[in-house]
Design goal:
Layout: H1 8-31, H2 50-56, H3 59-92, H4 98-110, H5 113-126, H6 133-158, H7 161-169, H8 174-202, H9 206-211, H10 218-227, H11 232-258
Helix pairs in contact: 1-11, 2-11, 3-6, 3-8, 3-10, 4-6, 6-8, 7-8, 8-11, 10-11
Pfam families: BPD_transp_1
GO cellular component, one term: plasma membrane
InterPro entries: Bact_Polyamine_Transport, MetI-like, MetI-like_sf
């Protein structure tokens, strides 16, 4: 009778892979507490909490954090509207070029960020649009829409059209059908897509570099601090914040979509 237990070699390989992926993140956390402020010395000569107070009192950190949160929130809102509408059209309507439209929607996330950034910068230059908060939002929305679209279109395709037909037959109008039938079935997919979009936008660097002008989001601030460091541990403290801010939405999206294999009306 075959054993359900994984062989030791597979466990070692899995552990080595996880260590390779997460050890650098753990080092960031350690260096946030080091007493050395000019280099990454290992092991740290000592541990201290003073860099958290220093970071708290740095106005440039707060300005960058505020900008990143605002950009991520608005980009996510734009993505939720456009991504859901695109998903509804592609999954529910039959028209010429539907698959081409689907490909064009997901193309931005498949392209290298440098290509997207250069393309957006060229468009802004030709249209004489000055770099501002809104140019960053437009840049981030290009890939945030894809994340929401992928989640929403998968859920739409697993939701039976007979539910909508039954709702209409029972006298519900379009708004009532949307509110009481469609939204309850796609809500977790939209929430998960929105969380992932927020996380992607919050820590985006490449596209932001081409669309931000002189503004600094938190990742751009971190990059500048690494190039011209003043207090290295402050950068690590900020990196801890970025890890936590992006990790929580990803975990939330995972738990929201983990038990949604069965959708109301599926297969009927």
């Amino acid at each position: 009778m075959p054993s359900d237990r994984a062989p030791l070699s597979l466990k070692i390989a899995a552990g080595a892979g996880l260590l390779f992926l997460h050890l650098p993140i753990l080092l960031i956390f350690v260096y946030a507490f080091t007493t050395e402020d000019k280099s990454y010395q290992w092991p740290p000569p000592g541990l201290t909490l003073k860099w958290f107070a220093v970071t708290w009192n740095r106005p440039d950190v707060w300005a960058a954090l505020r900008l990143s949160l605002q950009v991520a929130a608005i980009s996510t809102a734009v993505a939720l509207v456009l991504g859901t509408l695109c998903a509804a059209a592609v999954s529910r309507a039959h028209f010429f070029g539907r698959e081409t439209v689907s490909l064009l929607v997901i193309l931005p996330i498949a392209l290298p960020g440098v290509v997207t950034g250069i393309a957006l910068r060229s468009v802004f230059h030709i249209a004489e649009i000055p770099f501002s908060f809104w140019t960053i939002v437009l840049g981030h929305a290009t890939f945030c829409v894809v994340v929401v679209y992928n989640n929403a279109v998968a859920r739409f395709r697993r939701t039976s059209g007979s539910l909508i037909e039954a709702s209409m037959d029972l006298g519900a109008d379009s708004f009532q059908t949307l509110r009481h039938v469609l939204l309850p079935n796609i809500a977790t997919a939209l929430l998960a897509g929105g969380m992932l979009a927020f996380a992607l936008s919050f820590d985006e660097v490449i596209v932001t570099t081409f669309t931000a002008g002189q503004q600094q989001t938190l990742p751009i601030w971190m990059l500048e601090e690494l190039v011209r460091p003043r207090q290295r541990p402050v950068t690590n403290v900020v990196a801890m914040v970025v890890v936590l801010v992006t990790l929580l939405p990803i975990l939330g999206a995972y738990y929201l979509t983990r038990g949604t294999d069965a959708v109301a009306g599926q297969g009927k």
